[in-house]
Amino acid sequence: MARQYFFNPFSLLFTMVLTLLLISIVVLLFVGALRTAFTRIGFSWDDALFLLLASLLGSGVNIPLTTLESSAPVVRDAHVRVFGITYRMPFREQITNRTTIAVNLGGAIIPTLVSIYLLLQFPSAIRYALAATAIVALATHTVARPVKGLGIVTPALLPPLVAALSALMLIALSGAVHELAFVTAYVGGTLGTLIGADLLNLDKIRDLGAPMASIGGAGTFDGVFLTGIIAVLIL
Hints:
235 residues; two-stranded antiparallel ribbon
């Protein structure tokens, strides 16, 4: 059966909400509130706008990695009536489900590349980012829910809020410079969500009956996307 790797994983209403949110961010960039924040971490506002747009548009691009198969035996009973006697003829049928494991461009690849770039730019933030990643991964994995026919789903606001709070807490307790809070929140939120929601639940994907499960796709993309925005706002 053919797989569709290019599609919008969200409803029209949710897509409009994300688009309006992006427009609001652009307005703030022009006003200067976020422009200064991005400049302080090495991004121009053009870079920031490009990354946000690329993430949003890239949410519809899924790159296939592998295919999982699950065989579920189904027992059905057929009945035949002969000479007034009903005979039951059980038979067993093997149904093979195939799920394509993919990686989402906007929800996994782009945020991961940005995280690597930020850690290379701010190596002193690595230990804080790793700690925040562990915290977010644990929180996300705890609330992530496997959904039949879809994949793994997490609450949209949980990852960015946990990432922001853990980043602020780690930076405050360590006495590090406040600029590292952005890197800690962004890296911890994005990687923590991908690890806690998707990677740690790959063993459950096989039995969900979903035609495709995308790492960073529907179910986790919104949390990753909002993490980037909230991380900038706390800088």
